[in-house]
Automatic annotation (TrEMBL):
Residues 129-344 form the ABC transmembrane type-1 domain. This is Microcin ABC transporter permease. Its main location: membrane. GO terms for cellular component: plasma membrane. PROSITE patterns: ABC_TM1. It is a multi-pass membrane protein. NCBIfam families: PRK15133.1. Gene3D superfamilies: MetI-like. The keyword Heme does not apply. The chain crosses the membrane at residues 9-30, 133-152, 164-190, 220-243, 278-305, 325-351. Keywords: Cell membrane, Membrane, Transmembrane, Transmembrane helix, Transport. GO terms for biological process: microcin transport; transmembrane transport. It is found in: Cell membrane.
Amino acid sequence: MGAYILRRLLLMIPTIVGIMGISFLVIQFAPGGPVEQVVAQLSGQGDSADQRLSGGGDLVAQGGADAGSSYRGAQGLDPELIKKLEKQFGFDKPPLTRFVEMMWNYIRFDFGESFFRNTSVIDLILEKMPVSISLGVWVLLLSYAISIPLGIRKAVKDGSTFDVWTSGIIVVGYAVPGFLFGILLIVLFAGGSFYNWFPLRGLTSDNFTQLVWWQKILDYFWHLTLPLTALLLSAFATTTLLTKNSFIDEIKKQYVVTARAKGLSEHRVLYGHVFRNAMLIVIAGIPGAFVSAFFTGSLMIENIFSLDGLGRLGYLSIINRDYPIVFATLYIFSLLGLVVSLVSDLIYTWIDPRIDFDRRDV
């Protein structure tokens, strides 16, 4: 097992370098980089440059000369200004040099500062993390709390009326996009056109600090009700069907027939023998499901319900071409995904010692 873990850890190095390298290469050909955006703003084609430059108040238009720059909209700006902008954003160096320096810093978990927010990237990520953690943890817990009992019940009642109509609900729920359902919830229950029962932004109320502890709990879940409902609509569908199919496969095996022949009750057979084997693939998938709910599932929901989390941070960073945040989040999420994949494999061996990933000579 030690050799297997070492191989997986070593494979993470070229994998993460490949992910970052391809993304970095794509960015080089993407129009509308940070320098171009500031140039457009200084030329009067965008918002105020003060909203973009961090500590860049000294970079002002200094004349009407042709900049001779390849940046669109740069005509009329001083060439020295363009050079200062390129140096400020780090674009005065060759792409390969910038990539090597970036990876060397990321290996040491030095993610630098945001281009436009005048703060460190890691501080921004830590600031937005509580919102994403709230959504990810509760979606994971609630989806598994619904999926596992429902999947077991569907396996036991396979082909019955209960199995048919619950499958219909699951398919419809999985097919409806979460963000579309979120908009429907806002229209119905958040002051859209009908009722105004739930708040529309944030995780807490403005007077949260003045509430007693039980009121804080109620206020917290009051704000989470609609976002969690929108995320849960399709979150439990895959796990439910996976649980059902896994139980059906195990129920058909010989050891279950033998257990029943010995006179064991159906409950004892189901939960004493089938459960551990059937739940192997479901339990081992928990780390991956958490990463999915934590980092990818809440992007649209955070924007719809004005929740300032990692999903919204990443989205705004891409729109604003804030590359330090974009690459830092990509690096962290990719690295975490690779580690979680390894942890999932190790959980397999912990649940069922018969599984061995070590290479064997045949």
